[in-house]
User: What shape does this take?
Amino acid sequence: MKKLSQIALTALLFVGITTTAQTQLKKGSVTYSMTMPNASEEMAAMGESTITVHFDEKNQATDMSMMGGMMLMKTIVPTANKKDSKMTVEVMGMKYEITDIGEEASKATNNVGNVENATEVIYDKKDTKEILGFKCYKATISMNDGTKSVFYITDAIAPQAVEADAKVKLSGYPLEMNVKTAQGEMLMKATKFSKEITADAFKVGEGFTKVTMEEFQKQMGGM
Assistant: This one.
């Protein structure tokens, strides 16, 4: 369970923190499927996960469902101030709100899979595919740890927001991401796009116990 929670956190922070796009639309939702093609037999048994990113002009929320809905995770990120980010986790009948996720969000900008920490991006506009009606082309991103991630991005949606002094900036928005992580290869592909978002997309529900990230990881380690 501890290993699974680490993978979930990596995926959620990667999508929820680094893909903070302000698109040409005022609001919308993108749903991704997440698989680990070369995962161990144990991880493969967990099945496919679903990640949905909701955004408007002020906030972005990311909902993640793993193990057939047995583990649910959510982040809420104010686009102007990541330190005010929130995260909730529901697993094994327990509900947690992680109180210091703002610190983790800051750390995530120096973690694997973040284009703000990339050294180079090479575009191949001849290598294309259509995803959800959007024409996408290949972007190969070299990371400072020596790994390479492959994205398929579209110019129909505005590129992701990055720090002003970032060395690498994507020219479009990613609808497919093949990322190398410490836990293995992670493939995320958009399966649904909607111009609408749910009313509770940017809200924390009721009944959550507040814990620190360290306390949460200890709880997961004991399962």
